[in-house]
Amino acid sequence: MFERVDPFIGTEATSLPAQHGLATTWWWPKPQVGNTHPGATYPLGMVSACSYSGGYPTGYGRYDLGTEGLPSPIHANPVASGFTHFQQSGTGAIRKYYNYFRVTPMLQPLDDLGQLWDIVEEDAEPGYYSATLESGIRAEITVGPKSAVHRYTFPAHRDARLVIDFSLGGLTIPHGRTVPLRAHLESIAPGVAQGEIVVEGTPLAVHVECDDPHWRQMLWYDRRLMPGGTRLDFDRIRPTTLRPFGLMWAGPSEPGQVVELRFGFSLRGVDQARANLEKECGPGPSSFATRRADTAADWQRTLGKIRIDTPSTEKQTVFSTALYHSLIKPCLAPDESPFWPTDGPFAYDIATMWDIYRTQLPLLTTLLPDRAVELAQALLSIAEEEGNLPIGYRMARGADQFSRQASALAHTFLSDLCQLGLPGMDWDWALVHMHNDLRRTYGEEFLLRGIAHPISHTLDLAFGYWCTSQIAAHVGDEDLVDQFAPLAEQWVNAYDTATGLLQDSTYYEGGRWNYSFRLMHDMAARIKLSGGDDAFVAQLDQFFGYGAPAVVQPGLRPSVEEMAIGYALNRFEGLNNEPDMEAPWAYQYAGRPDRTAEVVQAIVQNQFAVGRGGMPGNDDSGGLSSWYVWASLGLFPVAGQSLFLINAPAWRESSIAVGDRTLNVETQGFIEPTPAGPTQYVQSVHLDGEALERTWLTGAELHRGGRLLISLGPTPSDWGTTVRPPSVST
Predict the structure, then answer these.
(1) Which CA distances in Å does 341 have to 264, 268, 277, 377?
(2) How far is CA 401 from each of CA 90, 196, 352, 528, rounded to the nearest angstrom?
(3) Which of 53, 234, 352, 611 has its CA 20 to 30 A from that of 421?
(4) Which of 712, 710, 632, 708 is nearest to 670 (CA)?
């Protein structure tokens, strides 16, 4: 799997092969670009490092800010002004955050700092990134969980230099810059310096070492050197008073001379940053090769948890890269909280739960249950200190970020962990914060009126109460179970009984059709609201474009009128965005797994491809990529309910390491699927030799491992048409 990963997938505007069948009818309202970057990363680590162009949204790439349609180029080719740390992964709206401590290898005077060079050669694999600039300098970067090591190869020059800019952050697009509030920088020994910048309220410390004992070490301010200076202090920085500042090593270089920089990072000061570097990279002066090998081995172990059997190297690349993108974020940073003094789990780059709770968090729980528990503990610590569970959480403080998107999403993640019985959780502690969180923001309106607008929050909160009741039952608090039951039933208030769809309301990045087919805890009652199985299936068929003509996707800078016409289609967003990514499996609750098979195969085979434009939309911290992982395996998690719905897999065989056990998924009658090829339908399913008439596995069954045999055929069968997935009312 490791060898097949292509970190460049998703870094350019969407450029998929011609769509076929149903896929031609889906409309993409959001930006047509994956917004990924190819930089060096570590599984769920704090640090990433990549070339820096200042482009939207990761700091890597060629584009201006874009919220819909094709992204607008601002550079004709890949360019870089240096190499930065702490990038987003696939998100599309944080804009000015991250990209700190830019390292610029130069042969020019310091006055030229900020110049963009063409990247003439690039390479990347998990944990490693390299780029050769048109100046002739080659950069290589690897990272550990809390560290980064750079290696620069210079041509012959009388005055080569490595410049670290402590003042730069964010993006170079309008309003994209991050200005540090305070900064301190100090040279403490030859080849050694340390410092701290306070960015958006977060104290980010760095310890840096250079391995060339002959180069001069100098501080600089406003592009002017400070010979003999050992310290820079800025206590109050405003955008109007900011002048660039930082650290530089310079000296003559021989042809092919290699200079290494080692960085340790911490949110708790320079001493801990130094300790992090020493722990992960050992003592200096050099450690690039060792750190790269260790990180590669960690990625190999992580990516090796899933195996697939396919003769197509392109499909191997698409799957391996999707799995890789699924496990970059969130950033787990134990013992690094800058806001409260206690040690223990801490996490950031939860950007956002709205993107990852359905697919990426269940994948994390399946493959890395210990890390999932660590994340859950971090979420509860955030709630303990800040008063609510986060919808999104950046490095900066503020757990109420992105609350407009949704409510009570951490509850689904915690519910799955509790129902699986994973060790390491204090569920009494969790219950306190889950209950409190349900009563904040939109939750108060929900309690007072039985409904909250935007109407999707009504669904969130009702399901949040159902999920929290699972924890209440686990700890034996029957009073809370009884109290939550009628609140969990209030999801019905969100629907218009005349149409069987959600009420008119404001919606985040979609319309009422996109949100109407969410997999709730009482799908049997939900289907009755639409008039029964046939009426519900008819609505889904309309939504997924059965019988509809092909659509034209938004282009560059689409007009308001063009977007309004597209939204009026009331059509599936085709994995270009998150609101309706679970809707294909709603068919199974109406006894039509054949429809699920048709829609999912159309998505898997048409919407993902190799190449830099191989994603249909923003990857959003792995939310999109993890959908592909699950769907292609023939399984889909119903988040919060500890259920996994079964469908026709895209692979002849696969295996999933679930903790210390393995689930093997095998097929009979399998034909390699193609974008325009016939659908494969499930004929029968056997779990460890026993016939399975139902269309789902419980979380406990999946985590127990075993052999899942799925027989496939060219026409729909009776499998799954009578036994429906669980609903609380049946």
Answers:
(1) 20, 9, 21, 16
(2) 18, 25, 9, 36
(3) 352
(4) 712
Whole-number Å distance between alpha carbons of 639 and 415: 8
Give kind and range of the element (H or E) at residue 44.
none
**HEC per residue, 87-152:** CCCCCCCCCCCCCEEEEEEECCCHHHCCCCEEEEEEEEECCEEEEEECCCCEEEEEECCCEEEEEE
| Residues 647, 643: Cα–Cα separation, whole Å | 13
Handedness of CA 225, 227, 231, 235 (dihedral sign): negative
Amino acid at 687: L
Which of these, 13, 88, 83, 12, lies nearest to 57 by C-alpha position? 88
- Tokens read off for 483: 């109290």
Cα torsion 151, 153, 158, 161: sign: negative
How many other CB atoms are found less than 10 A from the CB of residue 550?
12
Secondary structure letter of residue 549 according to DSSP: P
Structure tokens at 651: 């692979």
State the residue for tokens 């939309």.
617
As given in the structure block, the two tokens for residue 563 are 């977007």
- Give the span between the Cα atoms of 385 and 22, in whole angstroms: 48
pLDDT in tens, 313-354: 999 999 999 999 999 999 999 999 999 888 999 999 998 899
- Helices 369-386 and 360-367: crossing angle in degrees, nearest 10, is 130
Is the distance from CB of 205 to CB of 267 less than 8 angstroms?
yes
Series of mean pLDDT values for 10-residue runs along the chain (730 residues): 94 96 96 96 98 94 91 94 96 78 96 96 98 97 98 95 96 89 95 95 95 92 90 92 94 95 97 98 91 98 97 97 98 95 92 92 97 98 94 85 89 98 96 96 95 97 98 97 97 97 94 97 98 98 98 94 94 95 98 98 98 96 97 98 98 94 97 96 98 97 97 97 93
CB 536 within 8 A of CB 542: no
Tokens of 213: 């004992």
CA 57-61-63 angle, 5° bins = 65
Report whether 307 contacts 243 (CB < 8 A). Answer: no
Are the C-beta atoms of residues 602 and 18 closer than 8 Å to each other?
no
User: What's the CA gap between 492 and 512, in Å, rounded?
Assistant: 14
Task: Report CA Rg, the chain.
Answer: 26
Confirm if 272 and 216 have CB atoms less than 8 A apart. Answer: no
Contact (Cβ atoms closer than 8 angstroms) between residue 461 and residue 442 = yes
169: alpha, beta or left, given left = phi > 0 and alpha = psi -120 to 50?
beta
The continuous run of DSSP H or E covering 64 comes out as none
Chain segment 497-550, per-residue pLDDT in tens: 999 999 999 998 899 999 999 999 999 999 999 999 999 999 999 999 999 999
Q: How far apart, in Å, are the Cα atoms of 644 and each of 583, 584, 696, 700?
A: 14, 14, 5, 10
Helices (H), 125-259: none
What's the rounded Cα separation, in Å, for the pair 387 and 110?
Answer: 47
| Burial group, residue 607, by CB count within 10 angstroms (0-12, 13-18, 19+) | buried
CA distance 389 to 384: 9
Q: Is the pTM of this model over 0.85?
A: yes
Q: What is the crossing angle of helices 288-303 and 270-281, to 10°?
A: 80
560 CB-contact burial (10 Å; exposed 0-12 / middle 13-18 / buried 19+): exposed
